[in-house]
Write a structure and sequence with these properties.
With 107 residues, the chain is mainly β. It has no helices and eight strands. It has an eight-stranded antiparallel β-barrel. Strand 5 and strand 6 form a beta hairpin. The protein starts with a strand and ends with a strand. It comes from Bradyrhizobium manausense.
Length: 107
């Protein structure tokens, strides 16, 4: 598993932290999507410097049935490709509200 960032839970139910990998280091805000509508709305919207760059969905794991957040990001700096990641809890790093962004390569 490759960690490409770190976020902490915010008081409004979202997350704030940094996306860090190779040439990219960006502060990100993952905020709850309070205006969900349509067939398959995102549970979260992802912003950097006020620009929306992705979305997140709460999914249920197949093996344990526990919920997790799956993220999808797209920006010109990524070369036209989407970046997929999941939020994974940090263990033993002090903060209970901390999560790694775990890269989830998609072919």
């Amino acid at each position: 598993m490759t960690a490409i960032g770190f976020v902490t839970r915010t008081i409004d139910g979202g997350f704030r932290g940094q996306l860090k990998f190779l040439p990219i280091c960006a502060d990100i805000d993952i905020v709850p999507n309070r205006d969900k509508f349509g067939d398959n709305p995102a549970d979260f919207r992802i912003f950097t410097q006020g620009v929306e760059v992705g979305s997140g969905r709460i999914l249920s794991g197949e093996s344990r049935g526990t919920d997790y957040v799956s993220l999808s990001l797209a920006a010109p700096a990524l070369g036209g490709r989407k970046l997929s990641a999941n939020l994974g809890r940090t263990v033993g790093l002090g903060s209970d509200g901390g999560f790694f962004l775990i890269w989830n390569p998609v072919d």
